[in-house]
Inverse folding.
């Protein structure tokens, strides 16, 4: 399977001197002995981790596991992304455990969920879907976006099924965006229906989500046709018509 050899050094890497096998940047702190959330070296550690994944560095999963408990959220999120990028079966339980354990910053949990959908989307879908109903709205939003990024029809079904339960305006906007991100025909049909049937706030949020199609003239024509049937002159204003034509919505 892809990614199974990420933890084993290649013949070329085995020929490297041992001093060159050690990845110093992934363990670099700006102030040694005083690591904290504001450590300016955190992006360096995160970028180093992603670079090690790209070159298939030996033992990279173990290094990423250590980075997953880094003091800085930037590094922890990069570790989660890196674990997903390895596509290694050994990364899946680590990502699930971290997602269940949670994090002081929802961005890290979201990175774990996105990584799971990237590493093993079919098996991870039911797991990630549970987080759409999480008590933390930020985690809910991240889970919805992770599902949307997968562009899977079954992920779209989950997002559409949850839509009526989205009572918070901010979460509703994220759900609409996640639905649009799938770029599936069924998603477009749903959004056009929401555009014409919803109130002004919902219609505005839907139109905002549809901006990802701003370079598709065929879809812009369908949006304009849907708005023309809305029968709300105050919403379908001249300025909004012009914005739609320009692709800025």
């Amino acid at each position: 399977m892809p990614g199974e050899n990420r933890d084993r050094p290649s013949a070329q890497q085995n020929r490297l001197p041992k001093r060159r096998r050690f990845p110093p940047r992934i363990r670099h702190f700006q102030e040694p002995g005083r690591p904290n959330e504001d450590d300016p070296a955190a992006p360096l550690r995160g970028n180093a981790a992603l670079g090690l994944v790209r070159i298939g560095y030996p033992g990279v999963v173990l290094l990423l596991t250590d980075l997953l408990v880094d003091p800085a959220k930037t590094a922890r999120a990069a570790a989660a992304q890196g674990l997903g990028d390895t596509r290694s079966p050994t990364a899946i339980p680590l990502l699930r455990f971290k997602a269940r354990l949670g994090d002081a910053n929802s961005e890290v949990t979201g990175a774990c969920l996105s990584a799971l959908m990237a590493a093993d989307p079919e098996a991870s879908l039911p797991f990630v879907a549970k987080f759409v109903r999480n008590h933390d709205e930020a985690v809910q939003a991240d889970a919805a976006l992770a599902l949307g990024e997968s562009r899977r029809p079954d992920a779209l079904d989950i997002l559409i099924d949850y839509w009526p339960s989205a009572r918070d305006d901010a979460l509703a906007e994220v759900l609409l965006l996640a639905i649009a991100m799938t770029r599936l025909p069924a998603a477009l049909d749903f959004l056009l229906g929401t555009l014409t049937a919803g109130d002004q706030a919902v219609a505005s949020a839907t139109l905002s989500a549809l901006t990802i199609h701003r370079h598709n003239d065929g879809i812009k024509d369908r949006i304009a046709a849907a708005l023309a049937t809305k029968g709300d002159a105050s919403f379908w204003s001249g300025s909004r018509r012009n914005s739609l034509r320009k692709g800025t919505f």
Notes: The CA atoms of residues 94 and 135 lie 22 Å apart. The two ends are 44 Å apart (CA to CA). DSSP finds 15 helices and no strands in the chain.
